[in-house]
Design brief:
Helices cover 74% and strands 0% of the residues. It has one domain. It is globular. Helix 2 crosses helix 3 and helix 5 crosses helix 11. The protein is built from 11 helices and no strands. It starts with a helix and ends with a helix. It is mainly α.
């Protein structure tokens, strides 16, 4: 999953949130350079990613992107999950609820600015000023997020096809999201509780 889901699955724990958000930028034993609860967030992120990658819903969404995008099908699937989460009225009842969550998330992250590291430190101002977490709610936000995948990819030349795949299969993808998200939420909550007591 992408940034919105990892933020939400930090369960309003400020230190866990930072670890969850910077995890992709922290390699190997570098995780042990951080305070304990930030380490927990890094570990939680990795556990969530493993759970997500092996879930049947993820596999069924990835199938749609894989012929055109190969190994990057998973990255597009991560963005798709954030779109459906941002529009999940059982979690964010309306625009205001999502906006409040995103603004609170940026403020929580800033509290731990000293632990951002170089790469997240460069990215955070753009994330906040362009409100990436909120813009997952809109289809044009998904187009921009897909373009972000292209910029980080080694061989992807376009994402217009990826967006067309998303639009064409949106209903099916939403059904897979509705199966997946309650399960990953329970998994994340249980995993976090276990990590916090070890």
């Amino acid at each position: 999953m992408n940034y919105l889901a990892h933020a939400y699955l930090s369960f309003n724990n400020t230190d866990v949130l930072l670890g969850n958000m910077i995890s992709d930028f922290v390699k190997g034993k570098k995780q042990f350079d951080y305070p304990k609860q930030i380490q927990v967030g890094i570990q939680l992120h990795r556990a969530i990613d493993s759970f997500t990658d092996t879930h049947v819903a993820t596999k069924n969404i990835k199938i749609k992107f894989k012929p055109a995008y190969g190994l990057y099908a998973g990255a597009f699937t991560d963005v798709v999950y954030d779109y459906f989460l941002a529009n999940d009225k059982s979690i964010f009842a309306d625009d205001t609820a999502l906006k409040q969550f995103t603004q609170h998330t940026y403020a929580q992250l800033l509290y731990n600015e000293q632990w951002f590291g170089e790469k997240f430190g460069k990215m955070y101002p753009f994330m906040k000023s362009h409100d990436w977490l909120y813009h997952y709610r809109m289809e044009e936000g998904i187009q921009k997020a897909f373009e972000g995948v292209r910029r980080r990819a080694n061989y992807i030349r376009e994402t217009e096809n990826a967006y067309s795949i998303f639009i064409s299969h949106k209903q099916d993808m939403q059904q897979w999201y509705e199966i997946f998200f309650p399960e990953v939420k329970k998994f994340a909550a249980d995993t976090l509780a276990s990590l916090l007591i070890t």
